[in-house]
Amino acid sequence: MTGTVVNAVGGIVMCVDVGSTYTKAAAVSADTGTLLGSASHPTTLDTDVMDGLKAATEAASPKGAGVVDTLVCSSAGGGLRLGVIGNEPLVTARAAYRAGLSAGARVVEVCAGDIGEADMERLAGARPDVLLLAGGTDGGDETALLAHAEALAAARLRAPVVFAGNAAAAVDVRRLLTSAGFELTCVDNVLPRIGSLDPVPARTALREVFLRHVIAGKHLSAQAGFTDMVKAATPDAVLTGIELLADMTGEDLLAVDVGGATTDVYSVLTPDAEMSGPRAEVAGTAWRSRTVEGDLGVRHTATGIVEAAEAADLDVPTTLRDAARHRTEHPGFRAETEAERTADAELSALAATVAVGRHARGERIGGPTEPLRGGKDLAAVKLVIGSGGVLRRDPESPQWLREAVCGHTAGGFRPPTAARIVIDAAYALAPAGLMAANGHRTAAEALLRETLLSSLMRFPFID
């Protein structure tokens, strides 16, 4: 158990992130947004996650303060596993993929094009918690979309479905899927027009399905109160916090969260008017987006960091290869010595370099031979936020994160050229996102001002 508490009197909002490894609690003043206490406890997946949640919240609670609201986000049990079905990989499947990531989902499979029984079996094998079905622009051809709905209806797979495709097909899709026993939620098209990406309705629906089905389905707790507390998948809460911070600063920003299993990159960029005209990508551009790199975790997938770094021609010392192998084999490993902490920092820096490059260059939907799409120009980013246990514990992390994000100029994209660096040492982004989305926006803004904006650290800009 680790934590800090400040004595205070007044109502508090208790914000909790139930992760796969640790449960982190933050007690925030409902009136002033002041961080009054924080604590972490190993997530008690083997018993009941409420055991670890109660331990963390008790340790974080200041004396004399009453809890007026408890808000929880969670990525325990694998978080939200999403399967995507779209007409073809370069347009609607890509748009749906981006909407899924924005909802905090881990996209485990994408099916597009001429879908058959083998595709449905592959999709079922990926064990998605939720399916996102998209296809066609509003008023366009419904043929492929209805064929996909028919294939899904005939498959053995049963999971809640969010339909965010051609509005003209909604009635037929509902008839096909509900008669086959699927629970269906229909929302506005994720790609209503070519080049016009609208992920918000799908993001909202996926969040609601996550809360209604996934959290309960993970059997994380036998106590009914837990499902009532959970308000979002953790990455969704973090993205909401980052969006709020971008609104407050008016600046383009980038956030890099290096975790034990994945490295997530978030960006909030100013829309480029030229990219909305003739140069617009057919699947639209996600100006507020997240990417997830499942092979770049400093514990479970540490060897993936080494492999990806070597593939990108980055320097990887032999000792770091050994350290990565040990961490992958022992994901519960904790760095105790200076050498072990240095290895963690080096692995995290490589993970950040590779993950930001992938985020900026875009993604391949439909296989490794597909072209990169959805690239981003990061040159105008003015604020880079680092998150993750290694970055919070290492006092030197602002320096090496700056070099990892801003100093890698040979990656095939434009990195930030004049960015300030700040570490989310108080782990405030997720609590701020939870509060902003659940009636405590003013307190959320105050929390971000206190923990991030007031502690910005400037370093020499890259020429």
Question: What does this molecule look like?
Answer:
By secondary structure, the chain is an alpha/beta fold. The chain folds into three domains: 2-77, Nucleotidyltransferase, domain 5 (2-Layer Sandwich), CATH 3.30.420; 80-215, Flavodoxin domain (Rossmann fold, 3-Layer(aba) Sandwich); 234-455, Nucleotidyltransferase, domain 5 (2-Layer Sandwich), CATH 3.30.420. Helices cover 38% and strands 21% of the residues. It is built from 15 helices and 16 strands. A six-stranded mixed beta sheet has the order 1-4-3-2-5-11. Helix 9 runs antiparallel to helix 10 and helix 9 (302-311) packs across helix 11. Residues 273-280 and 457-463 have low confidence and may be disordered.
State the secondary-structure class: alpha/beta
Helix content: 25-40%
Q: How can the largest sheet be summarized?
A: 6 strands, mixed
Tell me the total number of β-strands.
16
Could you name the ranges where pLDDT drops below 50 across 5 or more consecutive residues?
273-280, 457-463
Name the overall outline.
globular
CATH class descriptor of the largest domain: Alpha Beta
Number of helices: 15
Radius of gyration (Å): 22 Å
Examine the secondary-structure arrangement and name the CATH architecture of the largest domain.
2-Layer Sandwich
In whole angstroms, the N-to-C terminal distance is 43 Å
As laid out across the biggest beta sheet, the strand order is 1-4-3-2-5-11
- Mean residue pLDDT: 87
| Count of distinct structural domains | 3
- Report the CATH topology name of the largest domain: Nucleotidyltransferase, domain 5
The proportion of strand residues reads 15-25%
